[in-house]
Each structure stands twice: as structure tokens, then as C-alpha cells.
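User: Please work through this fold.
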Amino acid sequence: MCLSFIICYLSFSFASCASYDESIDTCTLSVQLLYPENTVSPYAGARVELRSIGRNGVFVDSTDAMGTVRFRVTPGIYEASSTSQFVDSTGTTWWRYNFNGVKSMIVVSPDSLNQTSITLKSSRKRVVH
């Protein structure tokens, strides 16, 4: 009886030690910044911050020339924000634009498109030389 108990115990112990896949699945999340009309066109270098809700992870990257940034993250819920400043020096009067925007509750999963956009609000101030 004791021997059958030991054999049974050992078989359960070895079964529970089975290996498993330790790789972490990641998804690409594309964030597009949408600028207000009559301000500026999308530009490279605008800062975008992505925060993981509940896991305290923070990712930071800059946009490409089309105003898009791509993050490679694990599935979860995120919040994206952008705060940037741009000086338009193309005309005779220079303007400094401040852009701010946030988008919450972005669900990232392997079975969705994982694309979102942030509509930015702006303020404008004249630059005096």
C-alpha cells in the first residue's frame, strides 16, 4: 500500500513539472496624432507616452513624419498621451503651438487592429524676436 502511494505521488509530481511556453506575446499598437485644422501638418519628433493601466509600465517614443508612432507591447489596457510644442517659422509672423491630448481605455489584444488616434487640442502664441 505504501509503495503504491509513493508511485502515485511521484507520478503527480512529475506531471506537474511539465514544461510550458515561456514566450511573451506582444502586439503592435499604432497611435496617430490628429492636429486641429489651420495649425500644423503632422511632423516627426512629437513625443507620445503610453501607460499600461494596472501594471505601471510606461513607454515613450516619437512620431514619424506622418504623425504616427508604433509601440510593441503586451496585450492589456493602455492610456496614450501627447504634449508637444512646435514653432512655425514659415511666414513673416512666427507662432508657437502647444499641443495636448489624451486617449484612455485603449484595449490591445492579438485579435484586434490595435490602431487608435489622439485628437490634440492646441493653443497658439506669437513668437517675438
Notes: The radius of gyration is 25 Å.
